[in-house]
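Quick one: structure tokens for this chain, please?
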Amino acid sequence: MKNLLFPFLLLGLGAGPAFATPQTASPLSNLPAAVASLKPGQYLWYPEISPSGPVTLVVSLTEQRLYIYRNGIAIGVATVSTGRKGKETPTGVFTILQKEVDHRSSLYNDAAMPYMERLTWDGVALHAGGLPGYPSSHGCVHLSLEFARKLFAITSTTTTTVIISNAQSAPMDVDHPGLLAPIVSGGRPEGVAEDGEQAPHWSDSNDRSQPVAILISRADRRIYVYRGGQEIGTAPVTFQHPERSTGIAAFSLLSKPSAQQIQDDSPNLHWNAVQVSDPQEGLTPEQQLGKVKLDRQFLHNLLASLDVGSTLVITDLPSTRDMRSADFTVISSNDHKPGH
């Protein structure tokens, strides 16, 4: 297929900060450093970057961080405290078995467990708790009260997957995850393209109930398209100005492309600027991204998939993450009585 050099065109309507710790905003242009510098109780929260779709959580025991993905794209990260020595938090892939706002422990002196999200029937859960900056719990994943409330509002017992990893049980790319949800054998998140795979790929389902989320990574030189947390397309991208660096920018589509725009090689689409870490470069996708070379058929497939609420994220950071660890256990059994 012929590759095209085309701009992402947009009508930019406002760009205010969407990521913040409880105290101060964090610069999007250096996300890894911002994550590493978080103090106990702090978090980054970007829900507008991917406003809908299934949620995936990745708990890094090594980092004592919880990464949150919606529709396959990272929307936040928080500090946590996991199980101390002798009470270690188990690694694996879990579903949320039960949610309760005002839960109390049946094992530990009726201790309060606000915004409890149960992962196992024998006592492992996500909930608000102490955050001293190191593992200190009886096996649960402690969160700040404010963040636990936010997380509780977006998770589900039917569609949320929770991945718990450490340096011994999973590859580094899962223990230190990136902007795309990792592949999980036996879990829901899947489909992230492997490094080195250059051919364009598109496979969209007939279910259009979830808007697509698009991520373009300068470091990967690829575009990724997600619907309902599943990758439906990926293709290589050639940048007219590969030396440019503008951090992270996110946009939301304001109007569905017309039949004529779907056939155009450079359609004039209307977007709303949700988050721009380097506004001096401009508040539109064209200004942030510049012209790029992309497979013609892939572009037309992408345009046909767009609807109001579709999101576009542009980043300088690498985004491909992969996980194929046989050491992980998929835990989803409901045939035990509640404990803890």
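Helices lie at 31-36, 145-154, 172-175, 259-263, 285-289, 296-305.
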